[in-house]
Amino acid sequence: MSLNERLSFEQMLAKWGHWCVLRRFERDISKSASYDAYFEESSRAAIQELTDGRPYSDHLLKMIKRVVVPGFEKRSKLGSVAVPGHFFYIQSKAKPTRQDWVLEIAQTEDTDLKQANPVVPYQIVRYYNLMDVDEMRMELGRIAYFRCRVEESQVGGHG
């Protein structure tokens, strides 16, 4: 990967990226979106409703989504089933982990992706669990971006 990889990724992001939310698991509960500084505690009800019970913080980012067919084999009651593989390409500054989620949100209708913006208030279309997080590195070892394999999640009653 050349030194221009990060720049070319930023250009691809500007051209084909769409807005998503990276919902990060927070070990420090005071950084959580559900943390109430006045009472110095977290709202358990809010955490339970919006995640699998772990404290989190949300980060609005542009990401590139790619669906790969054929994807992966998945076990079901009927046996092995081939399902499409979903990947999100995320900027290096985001530093996603396998404990995080990607939330696909509704966008304004615009033929030019550069002009599309998230619908406010945010409307979550799909939740995804991060299954694998791969660092895509440049020649000198610096991370250019992350390639994340995801699986649709049932969190929050979606999926």
Descriptive report:
It contains two helices and eight strands, in the order αβββαβββββ. The chain is mainly beta and 159 residues long. The chain has one domain. A six-stranded antiparallel beta barrel has the order 1-4-5-8-7-6. A two-stranded antiparallel sheet has the order 2-3. The longest helix has 12 residues. It is globular.
Q: TL;DR of this structure?
A:
Helix content is 12%, strand content 47%.
Topology:
Blueprint: H1 5-16, E1 18-25, E2 35-36, E3 41-42, H2 44-50, E4 56-76, E5 79-91, E6 101-105, E7 124-137, E8 143-152
Unreliable stretches, pLDDT < 50, 5 or more residues?
38-42, 45-49
Rg:
17 Å
Shape: globular
User: How much strand content do the residues show?
Assistant: over 45%
Structural class: mainly beta
> Could you spell the SSE succession in H and E letters?
HEEEHEEEEE
Give the helix proportion (percent range).
10-25%
Largest sheet: 6 strands, antiparallel, barrel
Q: How far do the termini sit from each other?
A: 36 Å
Please tag this protein with its features:
12% helix, single chain, 6-stranded antiparallel barrel, 159 residues, mainly beta
